[in-house]
Give the backbone structure.
Amino acid sequence: MGENSNIKNIVILLAAGTGSRFGSEVHKQFYKIDGKEIIAYSIEQLRKVGNMDKLLVVLEESEVESGEIASRYGVETVTGGSSRAESFNNALEYISQKYGSCENVIFHEAARPLVKSDVFEKYFELLKDYDYIESCKRITDSLGSYIEGVFKREDFYLIQAPEAYRFRLLKDNFDVNSDIYFAAQQLPKGSKGYQYFDIQNNYKLTYPEDIGIIRYMLTFLE
């Protein structure tokens, strides 16, 4: 069977984006806060996940070919695509070819460095009973819409990374060309999902003004 047959739980860290809204020559995942690249904070937390068998980092093609990130952090890398969906799909194909025994996957974004290791451990445990887990945030502001009608904020919530899936179910149903952004919404009707609302301060580095908030919140990351 080989060593790879023992790989059941895999985390995929998406880090192939260019971060055009961030407005820096340095891609945001490699921007340094307090002397450490943003991506390093997520990698450090993921290394603490006790029930994770493998960490894969999705990078731009040139970054994979150079091997610099793989060497610097001691991680296995996968070539991403020109969109999040393509990077998502490339990771699924890579796992299917190399880690066919994989049962569960969690996708996370390198631009969200504040998620602690216990969240990922919780998601792998939840996947024993659910088909997918979505990280959710309640909406506290009023809602407006370009569609005519009145909408109540209690009827909606935000979806963020990380997101977790039973691997084979996702692999068999994911359509890289779909205009549905959230992969769980591509799963068959009746798939059993869990909405997890308990991640605190899951900030994403998107704009330069986010740096100060994330720098402050990182002081509470263990």
Notes: Residues 3-218 form a domain with the Spore Coat Polysaccharide Biosynthesis Protein SpsA; Chain A fold (CATH 3.90.550.10). The radius of gyration is 17 Å. The CA atoms of residues 142 and 153 lie 6 Å apart.
